[in-house]
Amino acid sequence: MSKKRGKLSKEEEQYIINNVSIKSIEEIATALNRTTDPVKKFCRKNQLTYGDLTDEEYDDVVLTARLKTRPYWGEVIQQFTDNELEYFIKNWVLLMKQFREDVLFTEELQMKQWITLEVMGNRVMKDRRAAQTNINRLEQLLVEEYNVPVGERNADRIMHLETELSMIKNSISAYTTEHSKILDRVKDITKELKGARSDRIKTIEDSRGSFAGFLKSLEDETIRARVGEDIEIMRLAKERAKKDLSEYHTFSDNFVDQPLLTPETVKEEDYE
Questions:
Q1: Domain boundaries, the chain
Q2: 257 forms bridges with which residues in the sheet?
Q3: Which architecture, in CATH terms, is 80-204?
Q4: Contacts 24+ apart (CB under 8 A), 252-260
Q5: CB neighbourhood size of 50 (10 A)
Q6: What is the pLDDT of residues 109-121, one digit of tens each?
Q7: What distance in Å separates the CA atoms of residue 185 and residue 114, rounded to the nearest whole number?
Q8: Contacts of residue 40, Cβ cutoff 8 Å, sequence gap at least 6
Q9: How far apart are CA 132 and CA 170, in angstroms?
Q10: What is the pTM of this model?
Q11: Taking the CB of residue 55, how many other CB atoms lie within 10 A of it?
């Protein structure tokens, strides 16, 4: 029996929502007579987690959910078509992963501009392709007209086709120019984004030279949060090591005893 294709129905979407937490993707797909791809796509789009999510898929769901909380998300969904919106989300998630989610809000806005320009560039190239297809069609029609004996040719039709062909060819040039401008702006934002991040990394590197430099680097909220996480990890590691080292240990002569670290780590023993 062939699998169903096309867009999920409202009933199918509701079935996924109701069962995603209790059934596997394969079970849901089988029940809907679908492949797993549209089910997974729906789950990712709606931030629905499921049991057999890979780490990468889970990260995609989490980051997509985060994107939809950003203050510019409302504008984004009004600017793009459904396909363009999906393209925007995928690129935003990939950029976040590339930057290890270490992105300031100003850098987020640069990311948004970068992806928006990519979408605009795609639109221009699609329009250019459509124009080229139209040129080919008109040229074929003109060939057919010119193949007609001179006395039987439709002069008005030929003039109309020539005029339309000339206008579309001019638009090809305009599309090329517009696309070049978009590419230049994409390059500029790429440089700006990398430059801003390089400056931040340089601040971190410089902070290692002196205590005053370290304190200066803590003015950056991202660096401050990272240092706080490192301190907490070190504290937990110290406590774990202290606990492990204070346990009973079997020495090389098979004598079992507790290493004496501090008075606080000595275990209480019952003596007869």
A1: 80-204, 208-243
A2: 249
A3: Orthogonal Bundle (1.10)
A4: none
A5: 21
A6: 999 999 999 999 9
A7: 8
A8: 25, 57
A9: 11
A10: 0.56
A11: 7
